Amino acid sequence: MTQNRIQTDRDVVSELTTGRLSVYLRCLSYLQSLHQETVSSAELAARFHLNSAQIRKDLACFGEFGTRGVGYNVSQLKEHLIRELGIDRSRKVIIAGAGNLGMALADYRGFNDNGFHIAALLDVDPAKIGRISRTGIPVLPYSDVKRIVEEQNVEIGIIAVPADAAQDVYDALVASGLSAILNFAPVQLRTNEKVKLKSVDLRINLELLSFYLKGVEDGTA
Amino acid sequence: MTQNRIQTDRDVVSELTTGRLSVYLRCLSYLQSLHQETVSSAELAARFHLNSAQIRKDLACFGEFGTRGVGYNVSQLKEHLIRELGIDRSRKVIIAGAGNLGMALADYRGFNDNGFHIAALLDVDPAKIGRISRTGIPVLPYSDVKRIVEEQNVEIGIIAVPADAAQDVYDALVASGLSAILNFAPVQLRTNEKVKLKSVDLRINLELLSFYLKGVEDGTA
């Protein structure tokens, strides 16, 4: 069963919460690198320009890690967020498309460590198959996608192919048994409801900057 | 004057609004491609899984484009959003770094049309200088950044260099007179308050999918 859809409001809410947990995790890792042992929501808020009420609300959902007047234990809270985000285990990832974007993502810091392991890049171009990325990710034949996903227990697929190939690749990734897909192709996909899809629209970032520049020009920023 | 900072709450609010305007624009472009002339906030909400009250609130800020019982004029509202986002003119962009990521961004659909024009890729590697991307963007010497920005009135710079070079490139882009910078390097930059910075952390997208997968495993998704 397929359904045409753009990102829903519920997706946005869930993504916002998850995004904040990711931000808290980065803040805590930074504090840990400074050997700081405890932190209050007020300090987190002031230091990283966040909202302290929002922090307490977000973290309250996950049980009690704060002590009144003392704050949170940095390493305990960090470990807890890592578990909540499900990155306390290693999830296998494959990237469909070994062009510039696929190769860049394969070597992107944070895509192949601390919870994620990129098993392979996949491509149909015989000239690319057999190559490895700068950090050592192999390019394998796209036709082997189902075998690779099954043998290596891959959970997440990344679509890094041109727009006109994206739907076929999406369908093939779903058919191979993946549960979650990250799509970089700027195209609206007919999606399977049982597979979580996150589409990244990089142009929105440029529009955000343009909106800022227009505000400066208009004297409203 | 530099300041260490992570994204602030105000940035997030502004980014959320801008992001929604970008989403509305995509919905309206789609309706226009179907030759639909008017749309109500309720239909926009139902069709694209958005929140109708939020739509009315977001669009109310920009004046009156809706008629009770009729809805919005699709092409008028679209043109208005294009003006609000400041993409009714062409803004020049340069990309620092002509590696896999820079080349992918130079050819990324939406980065070089409808309001944005990529003037050049910049690199220090003599082997890359003089090449052109698949869509024809030239790779020019990084040492010419200030001249290119001034001569071509470039407004936006994109950092697509390795993490260890990102701060130097940021400082050079700011010194060359750019007003807005999009950073893809996974590193915390010491920033200039007068220049708008948007950092893209692609790993957050993987963490979002992991959070979903964990929910499925736990039976809470």
Provide a descriptive summary of the structure in words.
The structure is a homodimer of 221-residue chains. Chain A has 221 residues and is α/β, with parallel strands linked by helices. Chain A folds into two domains: 83 residues, Orthogonal Bundle (Arc Repressor Mutant, subunit A); 114 residues, NAD(P)-binding Rossmann-like Domain (Rossmann fold, 3-Layer(aba) Sandwich), CATH 3.40.50. Chain A is 44% helix and 20% strand. Chain A is built from eight helices and eleven strands. Chain A has a six-stranded parallel beta sheet, with helices on both faces. Chain A has a three-stranded antiparallel beta sheet with strand order 2-4-3. Chain A has a two-stranded antiparallel sheet with strand order 1-10. In chain A, strand 3 and strand 4 form a beta hairpin. In chain A, helix 2 packs across helix 3. Chain A is globular and about 60 Å long. The interface between A and B is large, with 68 and 67 residues.
Q: Write down the CATH class of the largest domain in chain A.
A: Alpha Beta
Query: For the terminal residues of chain A, how far apart are their CA atoms?
Result: 46 Å
Proportion in β-strands of chain A: 15-25%
What name is given to the CATH topology of the largest domain in chain A? Rossmann fold
Q: Percent helix among the residues of chain A?
A: 40-55%
Spatial shape of chain A: globular
Main sheet characteristics of chain A: 6 strands, parallel
Q: pLDDT below 50 for ≥5 consecutive residues: which ranges of chain A?
A: 1-10
Query: Strand tally of chain A, please?
Result: 11
Give the spatial strand order of the biggest sheet of chain A.
Answer: 7-6-5-8-9-11
Radius of gyration of chain A: 20 Å
> In DSSP terms, counting alpha (H) and pi (I) runs of 4 or more, how many helices of chain A?
8
Structural class of chain A: alpha/beta
Chain pair sharing the greatest interface: A-B, 68 and 67 residues
Number of domains of chain A: 2
Helix and strand string of chain A, N-terminal first? EHEHHEEHEHEEHEHEEEH
CATH architecture of the largest domain in chain A: 3-Layer(aba) Sandwich
The CATH superfamily of the largest domain in chain A appears as NAD(P)-binding Rossmann-like Domain
Quote the average pLDDT of chain A.
Answer: 88
Assembly state (oligomeric): homodimer
